[in-house]
Amino acid sequence: MKKIMLIYPPGDIYQRGEDRCQLNINKSAVNSARACNDLGYASSILKNRGYSTFLKDYQSEKLNINNLYTDIKNFLPDVIFLSTTNATMFDDIKIINNIKKIYPDIVFILKGAVFYNCPQDIFNIADLNNIDYMIGGEEEFIIGDLLDAHFNNKKEIPNIQGIVYKDNNKFIITPNTNFEDNLDSLPFPDRYAMNNKLYTIPDTGEPLATISTSRGCPSSCIYCLSPVISGKKVRFRSAQNIIEEMEECYFKHNIRNFFFKADTFTINKQWTVELCKKISESHLNGKIRWVANSRVDTVDEEMLNCMKKAGCFLVAFGLESGTDKTLKNIKKNTTVEKNYNTIRMAKKAGLQTVGFYIIGFPWETKEDIEKTKKAIFKNNTDFIEVHIATPFVGTELYNMLNKENKIHNEIYGKNHFNCINTFDTDLTPSYVEKYRRKIVFQYYIRPNYIIPKLIQIIKTPKILLNYIKYGIRLIKNTLLG
Predict the structure, then answer these.
(1) Which of 111, 278, 376, 478 is 20 to 30 A (C-alpha) from 28?
(2) 151 vs 143: CA distance, rounded Å
């Protein structure tokens, strides 16, 4: 029986399982580590095909490289599958290269959005010689066929879409033109192998399961990888299949908090309302809490009230900017006023809200990001995060800047909290980074923010302690940089 090791390697905690949000968790104001579902899906699929798997999230376990070496020595894997990000790619490759010196026969598979139809320059700037395969697409529909072909019939490898493989020491990129429609065909992530206690909801610290509900996004936001990696056609899981996974989490793993992972959970009102109604009619009614992301142009009062009734308590909105000019340029299909009105509507439904914003687009001026700051305070969501515009490879923003010769490979090794110099204005990277920290700090230290929150949670010591923990992290990140 072939042995497959599935890992998030040691290092800083990054959102490795999500292609569009490859951010540094420890630098974020609101985000917590989400479950390693990409590894979990791979483990379930490979076990079903007769492989032996070992799964570990070293970064979230806060384990070091020696722990990894010990596990390799004990498990003796034939293959190591490692999930990487744009920001951690170079460090992850160094880990692989060092392992390869000790265990030269191990096959390495590196999965990450950066390898989706990857540009040729990546082979020049990254030492990929010890990597046997790279996966840039939806690995759940690739990993099983890839390993079967590798071990049983290598002639089939060129027919597998969405990978990079070596042929006579030359890297070959296969196209990725088809997306699997039947999401219900996937087994549930292997939560028996995952350490579910590592992934918690920020307020109570209880375990939080990530449930992938749909894939694909018809929108055209120029900074986002979702339509690139998952396609513009939205593919939905059935409500019954989602509820069955939630019931497994609740009854077998004692998890009652859920994050519904979707490019936009509310993109289809009929599907969203159907799922919410089925949750309300299920054994889980009144026993669970969940959060989801949304766009302001996809919700109405009926939908928000239905979500609230089904256990939703928080919705995250990509509000992005405080200027209509930027919202138009990034093809967000909203306005500053619509953002404000939608937040009011969500609060009226009794939902907490998160506002995500982006500053530092190439055309923006100091006046523009000051307007975004004012909008942030006016919208007054329960929580905020401010990202810096990052032209990830494959996005329209990247293509635009690359055509203008403004990137020079600077993007590799960066995440949403780093700024590269692409500006046509008087902004500088250091100014944008400092201004981001300034916005976040000033937002959360307001007396009219802190006092209402304390009133809400003062009788719940567990939540109070978790808020204090996040507050300390916030101060460290915003004041110390």
Answers:
(1) 111
(2) 12
Roughly how many angstroms between the first and final C-alpha of the chain, as a whole number?
A: 48
Compute the mean pLDDT over every residue in the chain, rounded to the nearest whole number. 92
Taking alpha carbons only, the member of 472, 466, 410, 476 closest to residue 437 is 476
- Kindly list the domain boundaries of the chain, sorted by start residue: 3-173, 200-444
3-173: which CATH topology?
A: Rossmann fold (3.40.50)
**Sheet of 170-173, strand order:** 52-57, 3-8, 79-83, 107-111, 133-135, 163-167, 170-173
Local structure of residue 295 (DSSP, 8 states): -
CA distance 252 to 275: 21
Confidence of residue 364 (pLDDT cuts 50, 70, 90): very high
- Distance of alpha carbon 430 from alpha carbon 435, whole angstroms: 8
The conformation of residue 207, written as its DSSP 8-state character, comes to B
Name the range with the highest mean pLDDT among 118-127, 194-203, 417-426: 194-203
What gap in Å lies between CA 181 and CA 235, rounded to an integer?
A: 6
Query: 3-class SS at 28?
Result: coil
Cα distances (angstroms) measured from residue 275 to each of 3, 48, 310: 38, 28, 9
- The total of other beta-carbon atoms located within 10 Å of residue 266's CB is 24
In angstroms, rounded to a whole number, what is the distance separating the alpha carbons of residues 339 and 220?
Answer: 18
Q: Tens digits of per-residue pLDDT, 412-455?
A: 887 778 888 888 888 999 999 999 999 999 999 999 988 888 88
d(CA 340, CA 375): 8
Q: How confident is the model at residue 481 (pLDDT cuts 50, 70, 90)?
A: low
The residue-averaged pLDDT of 402-418 equals: 80
Q: How many residues does the chain have?
A: 481
In this structure, CATH architecture of domain 200-444: Alpha-Beta Horseshoe (3.80)
Task: State whether residue 448 is helix, strand or coil.
Answer: helix
Give the integer Cα–Cα distance in Å for 110 and 128. Answer: 10
Domains 3-173 and 200-444 agree in fold: no
CA proximity to 359, closest of 295, 415, 445, 435: 435
